[in-house]
Amino acid sequence: MDSFLHDLSWVLPLRSEAATAIANGFTWLGYAPFFIIALPVVYWLWDKRIGVHLALVVVLTAVSNGLLKDIFDDPRPPVGFAVDPRVGDSYGLPSGHAQIAVAMWFWIAFELRRGWAWGAAAFIALGVCLSRLYLGVHDVEDVLAGAILGVATLLVFAWAISPHFAWWRALPAAVQIGVLLAVQVPLYLLWPEPGGPGGVFAVGGMLVGWWGGALLERQAIRFRRHPNWLVAVGTTVAVVAICFFALTRIGAGLAVLGVPTLAGAWAQYLVIGLFVTALGPWIAQRLGLAGRAGP
After folding, report:
1. In whole angstroms, what is the distance from residue 32 CA to residue 273 CA?
2. Alpha-carbon distance 275 to 210, whole Å?
3. What is the chain's mean pLDDT, rounded?
4. Does residue 188 lie in a domain region?
5. Is 290 helix (H, G, I), strand (E, B) or coil?
6. Residue 90 pLDDT level (bands cut at 50, 70, 90)
7. Which residues is 224 bridged to in the sheet?
8. Running DSSP on this structure, what letter comes out for residue 79?
9. 92 and 21 in a common domain
């Protein structure tokens, strides 16, 4: 059993140029650039509520996965198996790609409530999970644990948005933001790694920016995509481009000014979340590139 969970020697004979390209395609769905594209597209073109939910699922997954990695301190497979250099020096258990693939895609299927959506979610999640094994950066134990945690993430999030937490949504926006900021302080101080949390903690800024922007949008902006789909798509492409080519430079700019790397990354993600959910919609309305929903 231990051999099955940890041995990746069976992967090597399966590798080919074409298979590696396919695996890299699936595994890209678990990296930050994909989410910087996908979340604004969902929010701007599909459904704001679902966009907010997906962003919260991503944040919940990232923080919980990073925390558990640093609790278990379980090394990845031997570096000789790895053909994905993007993992850095992070630990292996549980697989973040597996966790987010199960949580994100099955949440979308739940929102759609269509048979084909469940099938597509299973296909994509399985592809992402297998890609981590194929690329040699996780063993079977890592991937299984990540997938199980992905299901747990779904259950926790479904509970969090249920009527049990209606009291939270009824609180003033300032109180909600204050609480989200406050809980991150002990989390940072009690992080199990001696050096504190790594870059994954920066998504806490995304949580504050995205949720705060969504509250502001709901109360004062009430953004609606432009009725002309060409305009709506073009505006969304512009939003994604601004996020990629401008806002993702904030952390590096703050570092030049002497701001610590983690603090700069946290601020960067806060600005990205706020821009996508509130500032961008407000600008688009002013420019006539978006409409306004009714009361």
Report:
1. 13
2. 8
3. 93
4. yes
5. strand
6. confident
7. 291
8. G
9. yes
